[in-house]
Records
---
Amino acid sequence: MAKEATGLIERASPRMVARRRATARAQRRLSDSTLTAYLMIAPMVGLLAVFVLWPLVYAVWLSGHRISFYQPSVWVGTQFYHFVLTDPRFWHSLRIGIGYAAMVVPTQMVLALLLASLIKAVSGPMAAVLKTTVYVPAVISSVVASVVFVFIYQDAGLANWVIGLLGMKPVAWLNDPSTALPAIAAPGVWLGFGIATLILLAAMLDIPQSYYESAALDGAGWFRTMRYITIPLLKNVFLFLFVTGFTLTVQEFQLPLIMTGGGPVDDTNTPNLFIFNSFRDGTPYATSFSLAASLLLFVVLGAISLIVFKLVRSTKAVDG
Amino acid sequence: MTSRRFAVNAFSNAFALLICLTILFPLAWMAMAGFKGRTEVLRTPFQFFPDTWNPHNYSAILHDHQFMRAMTVTFIGAVLFTIGSLFVNSLAAYAFARLDFPFKTFWWVVCITPMFVPAMAILLTSFQVVTKLHMLNTMTVLVLPGIASSLQMFFLRQFYLNYPSSVEEAALIDGANRWQIFLRIYLPQSKAPFVVVGTGSFLAFWNSYVWPVLTITNPDLTQIMQVLGNFRSDRGNDWGMLMAGSTIAALPTIILLLIFQRYIVKGVRIAGMK
Amino acid sequence: MRNRRAGLIAVAAATFVTALCVTATSLGNAGSAKGPVTITFWQQKFEDYQQAWFKKYVTAFNKSQNKVVVKYYVVPADVWTQKLKAAQAAGNQPDVATTSYGNIAAGVADGEFTQLDGLMPKSDFTDIKPNVRGFVTIKGKHYAYPMLVEPSTVLYYRKDLVKAAGLDPSKPPTTWAQLIAWAKKLTTPKVKGMTIASTAGDLGWSSWGLQYNACGHLPVNPDWSKGWASSPCYTKLLQFYKDLFQGGLIPQQPKVGYADATPYGNGEVAMMACGSWAIGQLKQDFPKMIAKTAVAEFPSWDGNPKRTTATLGGWTLTLDSKSKNKQAAASFIHYLLAGDPKIMASFFQASGYSKYTVRASVDKALLSDPKANKDPFMKIISAKIVPYGRHEPGYPWDIAFAMGTAIESAMKNNASIDSALKTANDSINRTIQTQGLAGTGNGN
């Protein structure tokens, strides 16, 4: 098929006059392109409208009520938003979520970058094995990952054995406010860096080899090549990884739910865990409160991503 | 020179192997734990190998019709889901990357906003929607609602945005329309990004738990994570079975990735160079 | 021509899945003619033997008559609320569902349950033991039929380890101070003296009995208009938990939650605070531990054995107020829980006598069961714990969680005991205000 496309180009090139006429025809067709474009986005917009956007609009409307499915729901306006916004635990959970993402996302990106360059450096079967291996953690459910890491953090576990080698005293990783969140971030990184590595690898393979060859001629080492060629060229990929990684990790809740239950004393209570727990009663109050809290989380995630886009000022990435 | 290159190569290969082993350690432990008894898994101090190799869990799962049926049904669903989402999202991604049309920014916002919607926010209302559409207990309710993915569309758009436009212009001049260009030029060039995001879609479907529990009660459509959930309880998990089951459930994805990883060689033009 | 075809193919493919769904849906909807009434029953997932028991008797019920067909479905506990609420929102909630005692009051306030009086024979209700009747009764009407009670806190200890530590296994600790002394003696580098809840989520509910024990009341006044968490009597409760944790007498990083007895079964702790259900788990998974284990009522702060140390948790079946087949659903509840005492007796046998009946007639049926009579744990728990057990509070989880957080803060030195209790009290008062609880209390 690709060959056919090149064939089209070759056939088009010989005569200038015909070409100009064709250009005119092509431009006329541009007005049709509105219809084409709408047809192309129609399946996506349609599906999103039915399964995400309408439910979202409806949820926003519901969140103005004290939701009951047995009695008429009472309209209370912004009352539940007020309850959420004045709840110190909600704000605390947001800080925890952002702190968690701040640990996980950059670590994941750096690890992914290093691994991608390693995969690029080794060739043949080892590269194939690595490409598959880095992705393997992602296929493990977070329940199983949680248990594995709870073991690693036990008093006589692997983590304490390693720091013991460095001459440090054992740490109650999951029960110390200063280590609990990083301790949960570790499986978070482990579960998610595979896809980041594959994306970065695919992007790196796209950088023309000639760039590296000329850099090598100039005597640039690995670090300088990374700093001046690879990283700048991968800017858009990093932006993508950052925004999507951030939105996903802030919403983590399985790991803290199983590993710490949100403790010690709320220090690993991520926003979604907070919401999950506030839904536990299933009363009209709990339903409305958790709904309002999750809609506020939506606003926070959207706003932060918008700021990131604006800061990066990558117009290419934001608008069409 | 050659001997030095050889040394570097050997070193990076050895290093790569070490990394593989580190990454795979928890997975290997999970597979080993599948050979352990129900409660032996949680015993301290940490033990990698089982006391006695007990293949009971694995054989029980391989002979469990419900488990194997769930694997099959989930696999079919995941394949449909992946193909559907790659098609729907790449089509929209192409339009956003390559075409100009009125209210483009508006539609872009419409398509990208869902990325930030927490599942909890639309849990009740999206369930109401699928109930009204009489979709409960069908393959459709598992596959259709998640097909349109902002994240995937965003990624593919970045890719198409950086695809050289000269090829497209030439094709246009030659009388090809946008559909042909998308189907004949863009799709064939999308193998690498499709593998990257397709694996993500496959996995998202494979690992989904809450949505199937909400929408599926028919045992013929029960999903693999629902079956694994049966080994869990807050009054004592059946760890041996959970680990054996998780190991077997992880295999299809790993095999698929082994097959498709070779397409990730070149061509994800999201980096922005021509 | 070719252009057009390509476009058409693309559009066709894009709508293919949608078309598929419509077809599949219309096919799935066919059926449902006249015949027996179908009712749905959702059971929250518990221990495996419970699912087996429910399945057996649902099948038996369906076979026993031809008017009602029960469709039985097990829902995982971790998504129970989500699934139930989503179903209620969409109007396809089950006719009959498992409901815990603690959720009855709130459900009745929201109008979720059907009053069972009139739908079930009167004798069904007179059979319920008097101390449990109140658990399912609101303003004189029954809104749920109780199935079982389980004391939330029982003390389990290893006779062999106790003896080895020079203590007398026939005289278990009766005060908190003695318990701590035992835990200290039993703690070795490899075995912790004790295990008890240590995260706010678990503490929130598992400490209710000890909250009653320390103060005689829960941290909110009887009509739920005011927080009572800063009562000085709670100081000793927080101190007790704090001593256990700070003294290194309980696991510092527990692998499982309070309700799971695995660490005790694996020999990692010498004593355990856990609900009576742990007996079932030990019998099932750690049969070798049974001979080494003794149970006792959990110590009271001052040694008074009549003070509550455990709430009686447990499960009931409720009938949805929007059910279209109330009489049929009630006949199922009657069959399963209130009819032939042998059916429920078989449940308690299957549980390894780790749960306790709420019906006088089932007690009688169990009397003729030699195994039940011989069971050493059952006697102690039914004679020394169940009679003093109190009702689980029906107040919102937020209040329970605030108290759980206070205990956890004290345990982990996050705050002083006084300030932890003050924070909890503020939080409880806030909950009272936002949820409009004042005056809605049921006397807890």
Note: The interface with chain C takes residues 36, 39-40, 42-43, 46, 68-71, 83, 147, 150-151, 153-155, 172-175, 177, 260-266, 277-287 of chain A (CB under 8 Å).
---
Amino acid sequence: MLNQSLMQQGAALRAKTISSVELTQTYLDRIATHNPVFNAYLTVDAKISLAQAAAADALLANGQAQPLTGIPFAQKDIFCAKGWRTTCGSKMLADFIAPYDAHVISQFNRAGAVNLGKTNMDEFAMGSSNETSYFGPVRNPWQQQSVPGGSSGGSACAVAARLCAAATGTDTGGSIRQPAALCGITGIKPTYGTVSRYGMIAFASSLDQAGPMARSAEDCALMLNVMTGFDERDSTSLQRDKEDYSRDLNKPLAGLRIGLPKEFFAEGLNADVGKAIAAAIAEYRKLGATVVEISLPNTKLSIPVYYVLAPAEASSNLSRFDGVRYGYRAPEYTDLADMYEKSRSQGFGEEVKRRIMIGTYVLSHGYYDAYYLQAQKIRRLIAQDFTDAFKQCDVIMGPTSPSTAFNLGEKGDDPVQMYLSDIYTIAVNLAGLPGMSIPAGFGDNNMPVGLQIIGNYFDEARMLNVAHQYQRATDWHSRAPQGF
Amino acid sequence: MSWEIVIGLEVHTQLSTHTKIFSGASTTYGAEPNTQADAVSIALPGVLPVLNKGAVERAIKFGLAVGAHIAPRSVFARKNYFYPDLPKGYQISQFDLPVVGQGALTIQVEPLSGNAKPYEKVVRITRAHLEEDAGKSVHGASQGMTGVDLNRAGTPLLEIVSEPDMCSAAEAVAYAKTLHSLVRWIGISDGNMQEGSFRCDVNVSVRRPGAPLGTRREIKNLNSFKYMQQAIDYEVQWQIDTIENGGKIQQATILFNPDTGETRAMRSKEDAHDYRYFPDPDLLPLDITPDMLEQVRATLPELPEARRARYVNELGLSAYDANSLTSSREMADFFDACVNTVSNAKLCANWLIGELSAQINRDGLDMAHCPVSPQQLSGMLIRIADNTLSNSGAKEVFRTLWATGGEADAIIEAKGLKQVSDSGAIEALVDEILLANADKVAEYRSGKDKLFGFFVGLAMKASKGKANPAQLNEALLKKLAG
């Protein structure tokens, strides 16, 4: 059951081979066993989950089931879920019980899915290793001393360790794709505006996008069917017709043009990752694809651009955490300014404070033009690079991350080294494009390697098709870490 | 050596939408604290703003009314600062790309002193932009603590910025009053100053004639025209005194205390915030299409300036009358309704500006709540115009209309107020009186002119006050002359 696809689990539930309550309990038991070590979940509430499962069983019994009805999903703790503690990985919200559902949560609820719990993450999604979580790091199921990646590290770990059927993540600069790569799972960040951000705690509003994290492209397609759609509560949500993301899964790949950006295979890429990616490309040739070298000349600027724009937005987005209305407030203070200072100094972790400082600086009078405006200009150039590239190819491929999972604590002292682990993913967010990561073998240390697939705007169905055909030809995605 | 005063205004007008500018929470004034604070108003984690189209329409309407350029694309920006009544830690406003660009407002200035004559002046409007209001800090809400009421947070405001075109308190007040009347006239704001729907910040500086602009100080949050005038007068004198005593003006934000009539500094330029404005990534740029513009234009009523001109040019009213009648749209509409049936514009104007306005003021009402309708008043005005009513009779009819309602003709009938204008009847009456007072007639004819009043009094009495005074005079003069 644990290794079945969402479609298989759904079929078993509808055939009454297993009930949602039984399936949910199975996962709850596994969480109880493994979570003390892996720390993938921050909050589990068996009572709520089992009640949802019982309600799903009633729908299943009535024949009112939808494809995901009764299936237990893990939700990244960045999504507000009514009645659930929603921490965003921060001390600031350690005791915050959300009074409303994020759009993503209500979409899963409407589909009859079960919320299995809230997963660990880097604090306010700022990090690439899950080490900035106030609630401690998550361990990688493939190797306990390794990081799972971040910021959606808890979700990636939970999927890889079969502690849920699938999970949600969010991706601002690679936070779905990088942990998916490091944990050997499949994750997709859709086109900006495809999934409503309503109720998703904002990090960098112009870059944040939610998406599915699962064991296969097929599963991701089913989840996207539920998660996407116009939401009038998010002004950046796109008004488009509802799509069936599974529709093209089985199309043959003959004639597919794959663009390989030369900048993604240059200095900085670990040899073992490069080797696995080359093998994956060879597999695609076998499936009928052709390969063309392309150039994305401005991607080298994506990290500096990102580390101006994302902190700028974050410094403002995080201003609401002031200790006045909800969240952490320092126990002692002398006056209003002191209350702000102490609450925010004590409530935020180091990485969050670092980014608030950067963001405040780049928006300040006298620096705005040189940093923020300049970064916005380069952002447009980066997007233009992709537009030009897609004239020559249908999808772009390359490594998701320059290395496989690194060790816990390895990059803790050097934020820039940490930032570089997102070097291939960030440009996609800056351009607003869809990007995904799929398992493509293992590196020298037997840790998973992720192949990144970048599509043109709204090309998710094609990307899922491209990923699915590879997953039919290979079995990397169905490998499980030892003991799971 | 004389001084020149330079004044510019920033006015915050609350727009009359039922819901907030970025959420569906109600904007009704006076509710229990925080009962109108929804998830967006209290800035819960994860909530997002959605722009209220009604606020945009009102902003466009204003722009069109002052002949301004409406930006085809404007941008919402975040103004970042910390304060307990600012739940997000930033205010959503418009910064470098406002929805309304340059426009102008013509004002009628009545100088406050001396024998100076009223004059007209055009004040340039720099821009007007949409933004959200903050909440309210309630100091000492409980046990010495400060409470926060977020009912007002997110209420739509249009901030209207003028050029520093005004040179006296009188001009500043005239501008503020004209603007106040205009926003109500076009229906974008209730303009209620007590409830804070129309708040003025006044920038004041002084200089020697021909010198460059002096350093300005900004008087914040004036919500009465009277205070505005007092505050400017005090501030101007303070600045002149300071400079003449060898001091320098420091840029500052100041408050006016109506109890003492003085201004005092709230914060100096050194404590000025760096608001770190940047475009709000949660909101798309605001695009206004030519279609939208035309739709709004179609809802625009005839503007006060146009109506003023019509009253002078077409109805032959004086500028003073035209100004008074266009002081509010209710007044002007009332007047138009009367003129439509009565056609004697001057008569209508006199009654509206005179008796009706006085009665409204006496009862502490406003035009919108006038108990006498234009139809009722017109019914009476027609009877004045056709000589059925004398002036005193008309006043009585008006008092009755005001107190108990009804219809002028019925009141005239019931109270017997119909004026006698039949010349035969009047002449008969006069003959009778002269016959009965032959001795007095003789005295009059021998030169005692003063007795004319005596005859008028007798005749009026005999007619029970109903004789048309002009006709009566004429008949008496004729018959007494013999």
Note: Chain A has a mean pLDDT of 97.
